[in-house]
Write a structure and sequence with these properties.
By secondary structure, this protein is mainly β. The protein has two helices and nine strands; from the N terminus they run H-H-E-E-E-E-E-E-E-E-E. A hairpin with a 5-residue loop joins strand 3 (59-69) and strand 4.
Length: 149
């Protein structure tokens, strides 16, 4: 009985292990971009993407432009940012920052979060990729329930 439960537990946690590299970082993957440019700096290479779609641990980021640091794997996305965490949780805002070391995503500026049928408005949203915890800033208000924006 205990072996059966352990196997189920391990199988349900496979996606987390699959998306990590040897150093334990969740790496951003570029799905698409209308155009891009490379800039070499002292600390490595910076990719500038326009009209991009990026995934981090199966979470999709849509944005007008993004800067991806090839050395740190951090992502800074700007303009019409949308983070799709699951079918029931989406967040939109002006600026998104993914910190690869801390494994968290933050969205700021005109934040709208849709969770199931509820829509919240806030100035700040954070999401921890490791433990899948999402938080809104204390100014968050419920905009609507059961309606689309």
């Amino acid at each position: 009985m205990y072996r059966f439960l352990l196997i189920i537990f391990l199988l349900t946690n496979l996606p987390l292990a699959y998306t990590q590299n040897a150093t334990g970082k969740y790496l951003p993957d570029i799905v698409s971009a209308v155009s891009y440019s490379k800039t070499l700096t002292d600390s490595g290479m910076i990719l500038k993407l326009l009209d991009a779609v990026i995934t981090i641990n199966k979470h999709k980021i849509h944005c007008d432009s993004a800067l991806l640091n090839d050395d740190t794997k951090n992502v800074n996305a700007m303009g019409n940012v949308m983070l799709i965490i699951s079918d029931t949780l989406q967040a939109q805002g002006d600026i998104l920052i993914y910190n690869a070391d801390k494994k968290y995503i933050s969205i700021s500026g005109n934040v709208t979060v849709k969770r199931s049928s509820k829509i919240y408005v806030s100035q700040y949203f954070t999401y921890n990729v490791l433990n899948r915890m999402a938080r809104l800033s204390t100014d968050a208000t419920l905009k609507s329930a059961g309606q689309t924006p």
